[in-house]
Amino acid sequence: MKIACVGGGPAGLYFSILMKGVAPSHDVTVYERNPAGSTYGWGVTYSESLLRSLHATDPESARAILDSSVRWDRWDYFRGPRTMSDPEGGEGFGIGRQRLLDLLAERARGLGVRIAYEREIADERELADADLVVAGDGAGSRMRERHAVHFGTEVGVGRNSYVWLGSARAFDSFVFSFEETEHGWIWCYGYPYSPDRSTCVVECAPETWKGLGFDRAREADTLVRLEKIFAGMLDGHPLLGQGDAQGSARWLNFRTVSNRTWRRGNLVLAGDAAHTTHYSIGAGTTLALRDAALLAAALLQGPPLPVALARYERQARSAVRSAQRSARYSSQWYENLPRYTDLPLPQMVLLSKLRGYRLVHHLPPKLCYFTHQAAANTVGRIPRAMRRKAARPIS
Ligand SMILES: Cc1cc2nc3c(=O)[nH]c(=O)nc-3n(C[C@H](O)[C@H](O)[C@H](O)COP(=O)(O)OP(=O)(O)OC[C@H]3O[C@@H](n4cnc5c(N)ncnc54)[C@H](O)[C@@H]3O)c2cc1C
């Protein structure tokens, strides 16, 4: 089978690894528009469950990813002069996005995948001799946009502005900082992804963004201003930017992509091209890798191709559905942040951890907090099966 993957992100690269690893006779090429070693963003988080699934599908990639990752098991919070540490925040892992792509590319090449860098594919007709074209070309997928009506693409644009930054401070935990300015609240979360670097994602409402002058400021000035605002969290360490050619910071509004169908003939969508989930749940890379695994498994079960692609879409879509729901609630929680900022910090923190659940958005915050605490105090008396049911996200 001749397979073309458009996009050398996690989805395209991991899919190529799994196909070539199991069936070396396949002819697999990944086309990536950027040069090798250049990508956007800083580090990404993932959980232990991703490591477990990677181990099941390609143990060599799983080991390499774990070896290059940083682990934490505590969450820390800053809000003005108040701080709080949550030792039960949970375990997490971070890895540099570039490092992840380098590892996947190395593994893919080792298995015989061709990676054509600096090769942008504008139209799948350029790949007419391929039996299968995988569109792993990210949230702004050109492959998908050309057939947006067929795919039934919907793109929702978030209200808040965000910027994806790095920091020269290597945190030893997952850190949140919520700060009030004369123009409203602005917040940041950060986590380490290497021994000397962390990711910091900063977000605020559009009024705050304009009020603080970020719509006009050059990146260098933006970073200085943000370093002052988040001084407690950064402890004197600089923020690092990835500004554009004009020297402006890359503020964006998050785009939630969904599609009615993920396939058209021999063209199939995977990863962000098929779906995006708000960055505040840190799941996009995990879902892209999961799509890759499900697509490879569906194809390896055998032809005909349309049946395999339908199988893939069915399985991957159901995995994505609940993540997109949680992501929607999570982004709403942040868009309504002032609803929670009058609460004592521990109460606000608890509600932030429940933000993927619908009830948090409908109950008055204090009532929600005390209801949760009352339930938590009696949970020991509830039979285990009922507890599992109660723990399911509310849809
Ligand atoms: C601020 C922020 C923070 C995030 N944090 C996390 C996190 O902590 N954890 C997590 O799991 N996820 C996170 N994500 C999401 C994650 O980055 C994406 O979900 C993930 O990268 C999707 O992988 P992908 O392979 O589908 O697409 P991408 O990683 O976007 O890769 C697509 C590739 O295709 C290439 N390409 C595009 N068009 C073409 C073309 N026409 N021809 C050839 N090549 C092309 C691009 O250059 C790119 O290399 C975050 C996202 C944002 C915005």
From TrEMBL:
Coiled-coil segments on the chain, per record: none
SUPFAM superfamilies membership? FAD/NAD(P)-binding domain
Q: Where is the FAD-binding domain?
A: 112-322
The organism sits in which domain of life?
Bacteria
Q: Name one GO molecular function term.
A: FAD binding
Is NAD one of the keywords UniProt gives this record? yes
Its keywords, alphabetically, are: NAD, Oxidoreductase
Q: Which PANTHER family match?
A: 3-(3-HYDROXY-PHENYL)PROPIONATE/3-HYDROXYCINNAMIC ACID HYDROXYLASE (PTHR43476), BLR0106 PROTEIN (PTHR43476:SF4)
What name is this protein filed under? 2-polyprenyl-6-methoxyphenol hydroxylase
Query: Taxonomic lineage per UniProt?
Result: Bacteria, Bacillati, Actinomycetota, Actinomycetes, Streptosporangiales
